[in-house]
Structure formats: C-alpha cells, structure tokens
Design a protein that fits this description.
Radius of gyration of chain A: 22 Å
Distance between the termini of chain A: 51 Å
CATH superfamily of the largest domain in chain A: Cytochrome c-like domain
Structural class of chain A: mainly alpha
Oligomer: heterotetramer
Number of domains of chain D: 1
CATH superfamily of chain D: SoxY domain
Chains: A mainly alpha (267), B mainly beta (103), C mainly alpha (221), D alpha+beta (151)
Number of helices of chain D: 3
Number of helices of chain A: 10
Helix content of chain D: 10-25%
Shape of chain A: globular
Number of strands of chain A: 8
Number of domains of chain A: 2
Strand content of chain A: 5-15%
Strand content of chain D: 35-45%
CATH class of the largest domain in chain A: Mainly Alpha
CATH class of chain D: Mainly Beta
Chain lengths: 267, 103, 221, 151
C-alpha cells in the first residue's frame, strides 16, 4: 500500500515536471512554428498582383500609376516605403503609403478617393490598394527606416501620434500603450513589442504589410491600426485618417534605422 | 479568373525543389456566414505538375488544406532551364496552370 | 485650386496660433498639441456598429489625467492620484445580495473569453473578461499573457481557506473591488474597470471572484 | 477487420480495372470522395487500397509542436523507401481526417510539404501506402493554441 502511494507520487511528480518542461518550451515551440512558415509567404501572391497594378491602365482616366510621386519623385518606387509617412507640398498633408496611393489613384486615374476610403477592407478597390502597398513595401525590403522630421508638420504629427498612442479610452480604458509600452510582455502567447522606442529590425512598424495566417488576409498598416483600435474597443478610425497617419509617424520615427522585413507573415 | 500562382523551382544536385503558392479561398464548408448559413465548400481538389511536358505529380486535396495553399515537392533529374508547370482544379471546375523555369 | 482638407485646416490653425503668440512659425506648445490631437480625434473616428465616436471624446477624468501623464512620461502627482482613487472607490458597487463568491467554473469560462464591445460585435454578444490575455490563472492554460501579474494560487497565497469566513473578508472585498474598479486601488492601473464600465455583469464578476478565491477552483490547487 | 490478404486482393482488383480501362498513370487524378469523407485515419487509408496501418521508423511526419493558429499548420510527409504508391497527410481529429493525398511516381521524391487547417489539438499522420498495400505511418502531436486577444 505504502509502496503504491510512493509510486503514484513519483508518477505525479513526473507529470508535474513534464508540465513544467512543456511550458518552458511553449515559446520555443511558437518560434519553431513561425520559422516553418517563413518559406512560402502567401504575401508573394499579393506582391505580384500589386506589381501588375502599377503599370496597368485603369480608372475613369484609363491611366497607370507609373507617374505617381510617392515622395522621391514621379515614378520612383524603390525605397519610398521606408521614408513614409512624410509631408507632401502638393496636398499640404502628411501622408502614409496608403493615403498617398489614394491621392495618386484620384489625380492620375480619376478614381473617387473618398469612395475608396469608405470601402471596407478586402472589398473593391481596397483589395488593389493592399496589393499595391504590399508590392511597394517589398521594393524596400531590407532597407532601413529613415522618416523625415524636417518639416514642422512632420514634427507636429509625431507629437500628435505620441498623444494618440497614450490616449486611454473606451469601456476598457485601453491605449496603444496598455500593451506596447514595456519590454518583454505578451498577450496570450503573442510577444508584444515596446513601440515607445525602436523595437529593432523587422518588429512592429517594420513588419507591415503582412500576411495574417489566422484569417488568410493580407493587411496593410492602415488595417493593422484599424484592428488594434477595434480590439482596444475604440470607435472606427477612418481609412487614411489623420489619426492613423499621425500614429504611423510616431511608430515610423521611433523605428528610425531599423530594417524593414515587410511584407512579413504573421499569426 | 483566378490569380496566378507563384512557382519557384530551384535545382540542387540531381533534383529541383519546387515551391508553389496558389491563390485560393479553400472554403472548408464548415464555416457559417453572418446570417448563420453554412458557406459551401470551395476548394482545390486536384493538383498536377509536369516536367518539360511530362507528368510527374498528381495529388488530391480536401478542404482542410489551408487558404492560399503552399506546396513543396522535389522533381528528380530536373536541371536549370527545364520547364515546370503546375495545374490546379477546384470543386467548382475552375482551373489554372502556371509555368516556371528551373533556376 | 487645392481642396482644404481638415488636416490643413488644423495645421493652419495651429500655425496661425503659434504666429500670433510667438511671432514666428515655430513649434506648437503642449496645450496647442493637446488641442490639435483632440481635433484630429474628432475628425478621424466615426461611429461603427455598437461603438460610438463620442465615447472617445467624452472619456472620463481618470482616463484624461492618466493619458496626459503617460504622454509626458511622468507619473501623476500624488494628490491627483489620490483624488482619482477616491472617486473610483466611491463608484464601486458591492454585491447587492452580499454574496461575493460565484461559480468558479463559470468564472473560468468568462476569464477565457475575450469577446464583446468591439465595433464588429453586436449587442447580443456575451462579453468576456479578457483575463487570460494579461494574466496567468489556471496553471493548465499555457496561452496566457504577462501584462498583469500571475494569479495562479491567488487565494491560496493569501491564506483563503474559507472565503465566507470573517478572516477572509478583507481579501474577498479587495478582490471584488479590484475586479470591479481597478482604478480605486491604483489610479492609472492598466486593468480595465470590469464592473464599473459594464464589461461584465455583477453576476459575472461574482463568478470571476469565485475563480480567484474558491479553494476548489483550479487556480488554488 | 480487414485482413491484409483481402486488402491486397482488393488493390489488385483496382489495379486490374485501371489497367484494363487503359488508363495512363496520370489520367486517373479523379477525386476520391470516399477518402476525403472518411472520418478516421484507417478508413481514409483503406479508400486508397491500404491495409491496416503500422507505425514505421522509415516514414517521417514533420510539423510544429505548437501551432499559434489552427488555420495554417505546416506539415510534411516523407520516406526514403522505394515502392511507395501514395503519400497521405492526415489530421486525426478533423471532421474528415484526410488533408492531402499524393500519387508518388518515379519522377518525384516521396517528400511533400503542405499546410493544413486544424480545428483542435490532434495527432497528425503521414502514411505511405506501398505498392503491395502495406500502410506505414508516422505520427506526432500538434497543440493548437488560442492566440491573439481570444476574441
């Protein structure tokens, strides 16, 4: 009797230590899983689509986007992604990649920018918008972020973005900072980058657009921020709105010098 | 029409590794829409591949293959410059073929 | 003729204000930046589903004070913090029937559930407590967050063997209060005011308190 | 319970039918409904003429120990054995176990990598069905966790 109890105890202890082991390796297991997905990122499919869209004559004006000025002059697409958002004199606005693409789709191709901005993600022209942003990000893959803070509007937007980052609200009192202002934290099993400073190469701002394996969707930065706000229980941030662009400036300037891995693959 | 595939074919030693990404919803038939109605299954059922025109692979897939499917396989004797084609056909009869050159 | 966008308007307004006060186009001051941020918030967010844009503009003093302190990178001054804690303490609703401890099994389900109150939810969604997003609770769940402290053995560590005993009363009350309104104990806590803000019902809070304090709950095994 | 002898007889019948109909090796890529309707690993194997499954060190299944999301779980099935007819990738606890079936020809390695949906934590299988109807398998457990905000 005594003997069987000690055997049971030993077995119990073994299970305990095995549990301990399993927990210790949970994050290693997740890392392994992510590594397995790196080869064969479906973002490639969207990148190819975006590349074709750039030269395709479309819209009421039946024109391509080849003369679009994304910040380095008309038609330049290499390296623009890592310098956005920035101030554009022709619109008098600070613009991110998607906001600037809207401008080009309107002025060059004759699309109605307001209509596209109102379209839900994954529908109509938003699908093309995401594909274009994915391809343009890929054209700067490996380059280091280098956002301008020379213009007063760019400096002001950084300060506004910082305030938005720390703005608590909604029924849960959440701010971006609730999850992204400390090192080494996670939500469930997801590591949370600290975005109040440079989180390093390919982390945070430097990883989007990304393919989301959980829903099989390609997300640009605008949709990434939109879903952060959704989970924060905030109201809906309009597409390419100043709030989302200002946040982009804050995150982008903080990522100064980090290499972009976009388009990435994410949970 | 379905979007093109991305096919990478790379020779190493006496064979070539083929990596394919396909653009497809792969709807499982288990999911319900917002109105509570089951979304009908829609998935790639057959995948075939050729090497310089000669059939080398055929596969049958079910709806449990992930959305925007990835497939990797190796063709024996394939070398740089050879042509590889991949064809898929889904349960609605839609089909798509793309070609890549082994590098 | 260029279109005047809302962004241009606010930028112009701020620049104009700066011009008036300082006589040159220099950087806006803190107050101007705060105003500009609020204008941008107003122009950028819209109603969607069950979430109204006004909730953001009409947020309470607790959130306003904490957000401002966070953005400046300074903690709240002691007096303001005390005041906020007092306001929130007064707002705690204690259990109407005097019962603090609910069914831990229901509590575990609520702790696991992260749904409700987003702009893609509807008013029929049963809200979850989001607890595992930030806390380790039952040892068996490996998918837990680390934003908040571990709650594993919460009751056991605090010596609660009978949550209905007089000896346990202070801990039981503190636990209820902390779940109901975390800001009553720490003005700028990261934790949502779960009962106060209507995330969970009184009955759901009771179950969560049960999960934490019932000696039979796996949390205390 | 099916005896191996019976299985061999059956697969010979199938092979005979195919031969008499004059099907070239790759013209029969018709969808095997029975295989994909099968609830269990064994029934799916049976639909492709395989006998009772037996664990074998010669077959390899690769996959993560933990999947951050069940929607995309990378799985690999391989063997260095010769005489492999079919290579199957299966998830035991899915509504239908079979994920993908590959006809193995002399022109390809019996080594395939794909990605599967998993509804819950489960054992995943690689099964090699040999020309003689033998069905050799390898399995491993994949834990599916709830990621993100649990919403």
């Amino acid at each position: 009797m005594k003997h069987s109890i000690s055997v049971l105890l030993a077995a119990g202890l073994m299970t305990l230590s095995l549990n301990g082991l399993a927990q210790k390796t949970a994050s290693q297991g997740i890392d392994e899983y992510r590594a397995m997905l790196q080869d064969g990122n479906p973002a490639d499919l969207f990148e190819a689509k975006g590349e074709a869209l750039w030269t395709q004559k479309r819209g009421p004006k039946n024109a391509s986007l080849e003369k679009c000025d994304l910040g380095k002059g008309p038609g330049v697409f290499k390296g623009v992604f890592v310098e956005l958002p920035k101030y554009f004199a022709d619109t008098g606005r600070v613009q991110d990649m998607e906001s600037r693409l809207l401008t080009c789709m309107e002025t060059l191709q004759g699309f109605n920018a307001a209509e596209i901005a109102k379209t839900a993600f994954g529908r109509g022209e938003q699908v093309n918008m995401t594909a274009l942003a994915t391809w343009l990000a890929a054209e700067s893959k490996g380059m280091k972020f280098n956002l301008s803070q020379a213009n007063q509007a760019e400096k002001t937007f950084y300060e506004v973005g910082k305030r938005l980052f720390f703005q608590r609200g909604g029924p849960h009192d959440f701010a971006c900072a609730s999850c992204h202002a400390e090192d080494g934290k996670r939500i469930r099993l997801q590591d949370l980058p600290n975005l109040t400073k440079n989180p390093g190469d390919g982390v945070g701002f430097a990883a989007w657009p990304a393919y989301r394996v959980s829903n099989g969707q390609m997300w640009g930065m605008q949709q990434r921020l939109n879903d952060c706000y959704r989970q924060q229980r905030f109201p809906y941030p309009s597409f390419a709105s100043d709030a989302t662009i200002a946040l982009g400036v804050y995150l982008g300037v903080n990522s100064q010098g980090s290499a972009s891995i976009a388009p990435a693959i994410k949970r | 029409m379905a979007d093109p595939m991305r096919i990478r074919a790379q020779a190493a030693g006496d064979k070539a590794t083929i990596r394919v990404l396909m653009s497809h919803e792969m709807e499982s038939g288990q999911r319900k829409d917002a109105a509570g109605k089951t979304v009908p299954a829609w998935f790639i059922q057959e995948v075939t591949a050729t090497h310089n025109g000669k059939p080398v692979l055929s596969a049958e897939w079910g709806p449990a293959v992930s959305k925007n499917p990835f497939l990797q396989f190796a063709v024996k004797g394939a070398k740089a410059g050879d042509k590889i084609t991949v064809t898929w056909k889904d349960n609605k009869g839609d089909t798509r073929t793309d070609e890549a050159t082994v590098s | 003729m260029k279109k005047i966008t809302p962004q241009m308007r606010v930028l112009l307004a701020v620049t104009a204000a700066a011009l008036v006060t300082l006589g040159c186009a220099s950087a806006p001051n803190v107050a101007e930046l705060n105003t500009l941020t609020q204008q941008i918030v107003k122009a950028s967010f819209r109603d969607q589903g069950i979430v109204k844009a006004s909730t953001l503009i009409n947020t309470d003093e607790t959130n306003k004070a904490c957000s401002e302190a966070d953005a400046l990178g300074k903690p709240l001054d002691e007096k303001t913090a005390k005041l906020i804690e007092e306001i929130n303490m007064k707002a705690i609703k204690w259990p109407s029937d005097g019962k603090f401890i609910g069914d831990w099994k229901e509590g575990e389900k609520i702790a696991q559930n992260g749904r409700g109150l987003t702009f893609t939810d509807d008013d029929k969604t049963v809200n979850g407590g989001n607890c595992y997003n930030c806390h380790k609770i039952d040892d068996k769940e490996i998918s837990y967050g680390t934003i908040g402290p571990s709650l594993h053995n919460y009751g056991k560590i605090r010596g609660v063997t009978d949550p209905n005993s007089a000896a346990s009363k202070p801990i039981v009350e503190y636990t209820w209060g902390k779940v109901w309104n975390a800001k009553a104990y720490n003005a700028c806590s990261n934790m949502p005011r779960v009962g106060h803000s209507g995330i969970l019902t009184e009955q759901q809070v009771r179950h969560v308190v049960g999960l934490l304090l019932d000696p039979k709950s796996p949390v205390n095994q | 319970m099916q005896t191996r002898r019976k299985t061999i007889q059956q697969s010979m019948v199938v092979a005979g039918l195919l031969a008499s109909a004059g099907f070239p090796q790759f013209a029969h890529a018709a969808f095997n409904k029975a295989g994909f309707d099968a609830k269990s690993v064994q029934d799916a194997v049976k639909a492709y003429g395989g006998g009772s499954i037996a664990e074998s060190k010669d077959v390899t299944i690769t996959g993560p120990d933990i999947a951050e999301n069940g929607a995309v779980v990378p799985l690999g099935a391989s063997t260095a054995l010769t005489g492999v007819k079919h290579m199957l990738v299966l998830v035991e606890k899915n509504p239908s176990a079979l994920v993908a079936m590959f006809h193995v020809s002399d022109a390809v390695d019996a080594n395939f990598l794909t990605r599967a949906k998993m509804g819950q934590s489960s054992d995943v299988y690689a099964v090699a069905i040999m020309a003689d109807g033998k069905a050799l398998f390898a399995k491993k457990e994949v834990k599916v966790t709830l990621g993100g905000c649990g919403g």
